[in-house]
Specification:
The complex is a heterodimer of chains A (423) and B (74). With 423 residues, chain A is of the alpha+beta class. Chain A has helices spanning 17-25, 51-55, 64-70, 81-96, 124-139, 151-159, 174-180, 191-199, 205-210, 213-220, 222-233, 265-285, 318-332, 378-397, and strands at 9-14, 34-37, 46-49, 75-78, 102-106, 109-113, 143-148, 166-168, 251-262, 288-299, 304-315, 342-343, 346-347, 357-369. Chain A has three domains: 1-168, Reverse transcriptase/Diguanylate cyclase domain (Alpha-Beta Plaits, 2-Layer Sandwich); 175-233, 5' to 3' exonuclease, C-terminal subdomain (DNA polymerase, domain 1, Orthogonal Bundle); 249-416, DNA polymerase, Y-family, little finger domain (Dna Ligase, domain 1, 2-Layer Sandwich), CATH 3.30.1490.100. Helix content of chain A is 38%, strand content 21%. In chain A, helix 4 (81-96) packs antiparallel against helix 5 (124-139) and helix 10 (213-220) packs across helix 11 (222-233). Chain B contains no helices and seven strands. Helices cover 0% and strands 72% of the residues of chain B. Chain B has 74 residues and is mostly beta strands. Chain B has a seven-stranded antiparallel beta sheet, with no helix packed on it. In chain B, 26% of the residues are buried. The chains are: A alpha+beta (423), B mainly beta (74). Chains A and B meet through helix 1, strand 4 and helix 4 of A and strand 4 and strand 5 of B.
Chain lengths: 423, 74
């Protein structure tokens, strides 16, 4: 038996994806600073900024008004998730021409395992160049590709050259790259973990790799400690998973900042139902059920609250999630303007906005994988069949093709942002 | 809004050639982008097109057999 073949893993990251799609769609936007968000004049944030806008200080996540303050010439374009989802699905089809082992990581990123196919296309770099050229020709979009022997380093590699990059990191080159790379550049190290690691004197990836393993285990537990130590050394054994089975979700959640501060409790409940439907849909899509429902509300004065409830049974039906949410929301929600505050049928909002709701969020936690057990209660089985049928219709014809009548015209429906699935 | 569009089929794909909007005829000089969405049973073919000066988004609904022009939100 010969030595185990070293893997060839590619990470593809579309450059400034939403903004690039909009620039490809409109010649007048090309070469200009643009930001894609919810549109101008609304409470929106920058979802993506073009490279021209980034050079002028515009950052993802910035509020639109702040971005316009920094860059008055910024052109703000309303996002079109259907366009981006369609493009993403077509790009994934391109990947599948080169390997069937494709893991869709997000709407604009994917991992490819080309170990078995690279030779057929002239090697890893030639394969990646072919993919980049095809995407450029079809959509006028660029991407950065990173090649390495595992997913962690491949993702690192793709971030080293943007836009339109192609970087291969070999095992010999890896120590040099990790030496001064800040710890937060590693996929999986977010703000909170970075803070903990920095407090331990771990600033760079090589610091993490050299840190005593027993101390990492003591601090983070055996599994996380070993995982972090491996990350610091650029070691990652996780396979490219085409069905995304391996990632275990801890929760499924959705939240929404309302277009305007809302004082009508029925409107708030309407948005809540929509969010519960989205949570239920995503949970079913990923094969989960949950037993704890959590809601969070932010008021117009930016105060807020969060409450959770153990439902007593595992649920994945949006309506069931909503009913549980109502039992915790109704007593906890501040009273909306009393009749004495109504003037000629118009609600009077206090200056601070503390009577109004700005953001609604729902999460389903304590998840288990749905074992699809048959229920002995006929009504339950009928409900499962209805949900399954509705999901199949929405899979085929688009999100919210079939939906609850009370939320049919809810503007939230245009902003699902779900990762596209290729059939 | 519904508009009148002249289109051809080329290499298996639908291609708008000109359209009438606000009593003016626009000749499509470039199809900048194409994408497809679903609206119930309808398949909707979207095109971002340019006449050299302006960009428009027009779409064809294959069940209703109508072309629509979408106002761009900037």
């Amino acid at each position: 038996m010969g030595p185990e073949r070293k893997r060839i893993i590619v990470h593809i990251d579309m450059n400034s994806y939403f903004a690039s799609v909009e620039q490809a769609s409109d010649p007048k936007l090309r070469g200009k600073p643009i930001a894609v968000g919810g549109g101008i004049g609304k409470r929106t944030v920058v979802a993506t900024a073009s490279y021209e806008a980034r050079a002028l200080g515009v950052k993802t996540g910035m509020s639109t008004w702040e971005a316009l303050k920094i860059c008055p010439k910024l052109i703000v374009v309303a996002g079109d998730m259907e366009k981006y989802s369609y493009t993403s699905r077509e790009i994934i089809k391109i990947f599948r021409k080169y390997t069937d082992c494709v893991e869709v990581f997000s709407i604009d990123e994917a991992f490819l395992d080309i170990t078995g196919t690279a030779d057929r296309f002239g090697g890893a770099k030639a394969l990646c160049t072919a993919i980049k050229d095809e995407i450029k020709e079809m959509f006028r979009l660029t991407c950065s590709a990173g090649i390495a022997s595992n997913k962690l380093v491949a993702k690192l590699a793709s971030s080293l050259q943007k836009p339109d990059g192609l970087v291969e990191v070999t095992e010999d080159e890896l120590p040099q790259i990790l030496e001064f790379l800040p710890i937060e550049e590693l996929c999986g190290v977010g703000r909170k973990l970075k803070k903990h690691l920095n407090a331990m004197g771990i600033m760079t990836c090589s610091d993490l790799g050299r840190y005593p393993l027993h101390k990492l285990i003591k601090r983070f537990g055996k599994v996380c400690g070993i995982h972090l130590s491996n990350m610091g050394k650029g070691i990652d054994h996780s396979p490219v998973d085409p069905k995304n089975n391996i990632r275990d979700a801890k929760s499924v959640s959705h939240s929404y900042t309302l277009p305007r501060n809302e004082t009508d409790p029925e409107e708030v409940k309407n948005y809540l139902l929509q969010l519960c439907e989205q949570v239920g849909r995503r949970a079913r899509k990923d094969g989960y059920k949950g037993r704890v429902v959590r809601i969070f509300i932010r008021y117009g004065d930016f105060s807020g609250f969060g409450r959770q409830k153990n439902t007593g049974e595992y649920v994945d039906d949006g309506l069931e999630i909503y009913k549980h949410c109502l039992t915790i929301l109704t007593p906890a929600l501040r009273a909306f303007p009393s009749p004495s505050k109504m003037e000629r049928g118009r609600r009077v909002e206090r200056a601070g906005g503390e009577d109004s709701v700005r953001l609604v969020g729902v999460a389903l936690t304590s998840l288990i994988k749905d074992t699809d057990q048959v229920s002995f209660i006929e009504a339950e089985e009928d409900k499962k069949k209805v949900l399954h049928t509705v999901d199949k219709i929405n899979d085929r014809y688009g999100e919210f093709t079939v939906t609850r009548a009370s939320i049919m015209h809810n503007k939230l429906q245009q902003k699902t942002g779900m990762i596209p699935r290729v059939n | 809004m519904t508009i009148k569009v002249a289109s051809i089929f080329e290499k298996g794909a639908l291609k708008p050639v000109w359209f009438i909007h606000d009593k003016r005829k626009y000749t499509v000089k470039e199809i900048c982008y194409r994408w497809i969405t679903r609206n119930g049973v309808s398949k909707v073919y979207h095109f971002a097109v340019s006449d050299g000066a302006n960009t428009f988004e027009i779409s064809f609904d294959d069940k209703e057999m109508t072309w629509d022009l979408k106002e761009k939100e900037l």
